[in-house]
Amino acid sequence: MEQQALQRYLDIAVPTPLRRSFHYLSPPDFPANIQPGSRIRVPFRNKKVTGILLGYVDSIATDKHKIKPAEELLDTAPIVPETLCKLCIWAADYYHHPIGEVFAAALPNLLRRGDSPEDLQFVLTARGQETELKPRAHRQRAMIDLLSQNPQGLSRDELGEFSSAIIHSLIDKELVTKEIVSQQPFSHTRTDYQGIQPTGEQNDAIEAINSPGTYLLQGVTGSGKTEVYLRLIERMLDQGLQSLVLVPEIGLTPQTLKRFETRFDVTITVVHSGLTETERLRSWQQARTGQAGIVIGTRSAVFTPFAKPGLIIVDEEHDASFKQHEGFKYSARDLAVLRASWDKTPILLGSATPSLESLHNAISGKYTHLQLRKRPAGIAQETYQVISLKHKEPDTGFSPPLLKLMRQHLDAKGQILIFLNRRGFAPVLLCTKCHWMANCPRCDARMTYHLSSRRLICHHCTSESSVPQHCAQCQSSQLLLLGLGTQRIEEHLKLTFGDVPVLRIDRDSTRRKGSFDKLLDEINRQDPAILIGTQMLAKGHHFSNVTLSVMLEVDSSFYSADYKAMERMGQLILQVGGRSGRSEKPGTVVIQTHFPDQPLLKQLIDEGYNTFADTILSERRDNGLPPYCHQALVRAESTSRRLAMDFLEELEGANNPHVDVFGPFPSSMEKRAGRYRALLMISSQSRQSLHKELKEKILTAESSILGKKLRWSVDIDPIDLF
Predict the structure, then answer these.
(1) Burial degree of 383 (CB within 10 A; 0-12, 13-18, 19+)
(2) Inter-CA distances, 675 with 199, 639, 710, 714, Å
């Protein structure tokens, strides 16, 4: 009895949708000093999974006889460092997400499967050098011959032509062994700045960021925020410290990598979802051992371990891509701020158009606000021009004044950027006789016609169909393609400006590996050209010969039901506008709109982003909206419209007088991918009250019979409200 009372149980995060950790008995010969963050293979239901040790408990509520022993300790030292362990535990609690899934999201897939975190190489043993294999084993013989020519050993990638079965067979025969590749911390020599001199504002910002804390660097487009990043990273490298740079999109990673590789002579690694599993593990290991001095990545890179953390930079910090929208719905920007505070390192949030949450934190003194108000000498700020479409509807999307202006810029050897946030050829297929439209059978959305495939495609669930020859309702053959997509714009501009290349950059044109880089290389040749693109073209790119930026069809955001829509539109206008005039040639930005007198649009253009942001912040303060309150959403989706609403009705009503509950109500697109979606919004000025209320609703949801018949999720600090 006394020995049983002294039994310590392992507290383990298991990758499962259940919001709890699990207890196990220690396996035989389990070392007493194993620290949290180590991986342990455990039985779970009818399979074996890899969990993360969270700690130890002396007593449990469960029947002790039902506790299973863990099977195998995979790490003798924590694979997840203390700060990252703490971050994952905090995130699981704050975002109300299963802790095992949080740790799973933080690790490369190969580590989740139980692979070694070390870089391994395969080397011939002494026996392997002497053994003569049977003639039939020609593949094993070929591998031994290859290893004999490379006595230092070869990595798994270098042995790619040989199957795992062959490798394991030779290891079992003790002809080949695995050795851990020693990783050396990065070495660094001073950078050659090639005559680049920081401006006074840049120098002030660089000098101000000299201690741990959160810094908001607000710089107009083209003002040189990247140069500030580079100088700060240089300072960290001089001290033997590593830097993490978060960017919003994979498309920005190659461009950022090239610029950093030109500047620094250290190992720079990338982390994003486009890597293979082996590449992802290698990047993770290079950062963990200190071999990489700089890590560049998208939102998941916030969980990258570092040997010597020194600096975190979040570029384009306002971008919605830093929020995960599926599964574990975390904000990489917000977690990066928390991680930096625990690592006692500075974090720099950079943007020309900061999020209103970050601006509010700067105004309230939580963040240090630094500004770059001017572009470097010789580079003028872009000018804005509004073209009114009142009582006009150009068939092609381009008004006569705009076409004339485009010709002038092309004749002056400039490039033109056309922004339209809608890919495809036409968003509507309409019957002119009965007004039937081709809708997606699985979504409350219309099918978009794509010229390249000559198919109708839903952009929400990817459903496809052939183009009908007759109306599905009245059988008329009078079908008309309406509206503008990037493909239609491309076709029209090729006919109108046949003497210059027209380059389309959207998800459809950049699917193939290397296609995006190829298009960027063509743009950077400086020849006159017209660039057409969606948001992926507007983010952070430096196009030195673009002199005219054009925004088409922006009006929907002016009167959207989403209170965040105008903030996003203001950011988008300035981000797209900032692509022009980034070199010696002046830049012009044209906005075509049916609402040229829209007050916030005029304020943005005439008075700048700060005044525009102050107005929106004032409106939000008056209406009790974020950042002056805190919000959470409970989302439900089901194949039955009524079931989703009935489930959320079980959760409505507030138990706390300081909490408001709104709904349930259908999503703006109620049906998507065959499932009906509904929302329940919870709001409070007290973050503590909000989370207390939400925990009670989660308990109710988990015990609900209806909750077991549908999908439901929780979204903290949502940015997509509908």
Answers:
(1) middle
(2) 54, 5, 10, 17
pTM of the model: 0.89
3-class DSSP assignment, residue 681: strand
Rounded-to-integer distance, Cα 526 and Cα 528, Å: 7
DSSP state of 7: -
Residue whose token pair is 């590789």: 261
CA–CA distance, 707 with 709 (Å, rounded to integer) = 5
Q: pLDDT tens digits for 78-133?
A: 999 999 999 999 999 999 999 999 999 999 998 998 887 777 788 888 888 887 76
Q: Taking the CB of residue 61, how many other CB atoms lie within 10 A of it?
A: 5
Distance CA 579, CA 595 (A): 24
- 240: left (phi > 0), else alpha (psi -120 to 50), else beta? left
Q: Count H helices and E strands in the chain, helices first.
A: 22, 30
For residue 184, count CB atoms less than 10 angstroms from its CB and return exposed for 0-12, middle for 13-18, buried for 19 or more: exposed
Residue written as token pair 């040997």: 307
Is residue 613 a contact partner of residue 573, using CB atoms and an 8 Å limit? Answer: no
Residue 55: how many other CB atoms lie within 10 Å? 15
Which tens digit of pLDDT belongs to each residue from 322-344?
Answer: 999 999 999 999 999 999 999 99
| Triad 696, 715, 355: Cα angle to 5° | 130
Q: Which residue has the tokens 């040749």?
A: 525
Q: What backbone torsions phi and psi does residue 659 show, to the nearest 5 degrees?
A: -125, 135
Question: Tokens 């489930």 map to which residue?
Answer: 647
Distance, CA of 213 to CA of 10 (rounded, Å): 36
* Closest by Cα among 450, 516, 459, 456 to 487: 450
Residues 6+ away with beta carbon under 8 Å from 277? 108, 109, 110
Residue 598 CB neighbour total at 10 angstroms: 19
CA–CA separation, 138 and 141 (whole Å) = 5
8 Å CB contact between 79 and 38: yes
**Residue 518 is inside which H or E element, if any?**
helix 515-523
> Mean of the pLDDT values across residues 59-75?
82
For residues 290, 252, 274, 304, the Cα torsion angle rounded to the nearest 10 degrees is 30
Would you give the distance in Å from CA 456 to the centre of its chain?
28
Partnered with residue 430 across adjacent β-strands are 437, 480
In which order are the strands placed within the sheet that holds 47-57? Answer: 22-24, 9-13, 47-57, 39-44, 72-73
23-39 burial by CB neighbour count: b if 16+ within 10 A, else e?
Answer: bbebeeeeeeebbbbbb
Q: Which residues contact 602 (CB under 8 A, 6 or more apart)?
A: none
Average pLDDT in the chain: 89
